[in-house]
Amino acid sequence: MTRLSDAVRGRLADTGGEPTAGRVAAALRAEERLLGDREVLALADELQAEFVGAGPLEPLLRAPEVTDVLVNGPDEVWVDTGEGLLRTALRFQDEATLRRLAQRLTAAAGRRLDDAAPYADARLPGGVRLHAVLPPVSAGGTCLSLRLPRRRAFTLDELVAAGTVPIEGASLLAALIETRTAFLISGGTGSGKTTLLSCMLSLADPSERLVLVEDSAELRPEHGHVVRLEARPPNVEGAGGVTLNELVRQALRMRPDRLVVGEVRGSEVVVLLNSLNTGHEGGCGTLHANAAADVPARLEALGCAAGLSREAVHSQLAAALDVVVHLVREPGGGRRRVAEVCLLRRAADGLVGVVPAVSFTAAGAMVTAVGAAALVERLENRWDPGTREEPP
Questions:
Q1: In terms of C-beta density within 10 A (0-12 exposed, 13-18 middle, 19 or more buried), how is residue 153 classed?
Q2: Residue 390: which pLDDT band, with cuts at 50, 70 and 90?
Q3: How far is Cα 268 from Cα 234, in angstroms, rounded to an integer?
Q4: Of the listed ranges 17-21, 153-157, 256-260, 368-372, the one predicted with least confidence
Q5: Where do the domains of the chain lie?
Q6: What is the CATH number of domain 56-149?
Q7: Which contiguous run of DSSP H or E holds residue 303?
């Protein structure tokens, strides 16, 4: 296969032009005249994937149930189909083949990957999120992490059916959007924050203008008026980069009805909190946190790193955000689900803390907490938790 691949590659280089399926098939026939039509089509598809696609990973990326493809060196390829990681039988011919694929994919995204820059984070054409690391930084061989965007947003009913959103929590999430409550969705890596946020944004009034600011475009709400702004890394000379902080500032000038930050992770938190204090209602985003109770501390750390004092961060936070929706992923890479909904409230010492309002068990049962009544009031009585015993 390597000899045939090199020969076809040479013919395509001689003729010039893009390596389309037709050109690859013609070059293949010129090399292997005894092949039948079926063999030519199969080999042409495989070779085209090697030249312009993801090579042997292409079938995995095309599978509708796959959300992540992880390569740990030439002999380990794993996939996540939503039910945890599974090791595949796929192998690369050798480390050099895997390295060439990583470098070609990275170059297609306009990034550099070599000994001088042994890691890269980029988005491929089509929306696939790519992260690559070369040896010797990755001691076991070249590592690739590919995260596939969902082709459409889940509906709320689909998330309920999947067990991500408890039946009694669906109306609560819908009320957050309807009342234009400012909220954050928190959770660990892979807990489904972006999926849930896309679903909730799909519930926004069709007359609203959603301006999405993301490091890598992953939010895909089913909504008629969406404006997307995506950060851009600097080029190899270190110029031309556009940060989330700058994009949030630009978004505020674009008449957003809802300002959405896909993931709050840096200094953009200062501009976001300030904007939510100046009449921009209904803002939302996601935040990495192990528990809802950790959210104020995470925002404090980001704000202080951006130059705000601790007091200023909590003062802005108290007036900017109302609710935290926290997601968890069950052990073993299992089901993602909404675990709790909490209010953000300023305490007597001036610091913002988390007040539990509603939690959901693994079985989907709802348990109200001390903040439930305040949450009902914030949601303008458009959500009714019903009669539940508060935990002791």
A1: buried
A2: very low
A3: 17
A4: 17-21
A5: 1-52, 56-149, 156-378
A6: 3.30.450.370
A7: helix 295-305
